[in-house]
Amino acid sequence: MTGEGTNCYLIGSGQRRVLLDTGSPNEESVVKSLTQVLEAEKCEIDKIIISHWHFDHIGGVEAIQREICGDIPLFKHKRVPYPKVYKGAGEKMPSGVKIPKFEEQFWNFLTDGDVLETSCGRKIQVLFTPGHADDHICLWMKDERVLFSGDNILGNSTTVIDNYNSYMNSLEKIRALGDCLILPGHGGVIENGLERVEFYINHRRMRENQIIEQLENGEKRIRDIVKVLYADVPEVLHPAASINVAMTLDLLVEKEAVSIVDADSEIFCKL
Hints:
This protein is of the alpha/beta class. It folds into two domains: 9-191, Ribonuclease Z/Hydroxyacylglutathione hydrolase-like (Metallo-beta-lactamase, Chain A), CATH 3.60.15.10; 201-270, Orthogonal Bundle (Arc Repressor Mutant, subunit A). The chain has seven helices and twelve strands.
């Protein structure tokens, strides 16, 4: 799920800089390339900020502490449980990888709206943006109009989500920032950030409309809607698609566009 790898960013231009994300554990960590950059730039890490708890973002913390500097302050947002959890939703962690337990490390917990500064005086605002993960944050540099989007917005594809309602709220929050340069957690730089955010929102809204259309056509069960909307997708991926449809239907119920017919939330109809 990490594509060509995780983008980790050194933020600032002074002697002490902020590191956003740390890559995967052990041999896949960012230690080697980070060491080369620190030596070339003649700078050091002031603090580490983690965009979210997934292994390919938090996994290199231990190696960086061990190989580069053991007393670097660590920052992240607390995990905030969703009102409803969807079994099987979200990014799948690879088997056989030892995922660090961040609870075992000392963290300075961030909250939405917090403002941090680089050593050269650049301001970084924390935006709590759950939906891909329950602790996900983006970093916003208003003066530079640069957004570090983590995995909420990617450079080369749409992203995996674990709560649809939270994710859509996060996209709207990002859209309100206006046009900007987006530096994503995976993939290339996004020059026209607002255009990409609106593409993400429109893509999700299109899927909502397609689901409503299927209800109007007589399809009532999630599995039947999936068979139609994901007909060109291998059936092995239909369980994951079913989770996306279930999350979307719950939002449509909340918006009073759809109603639940049975107590088991298996049959739906358009209002």
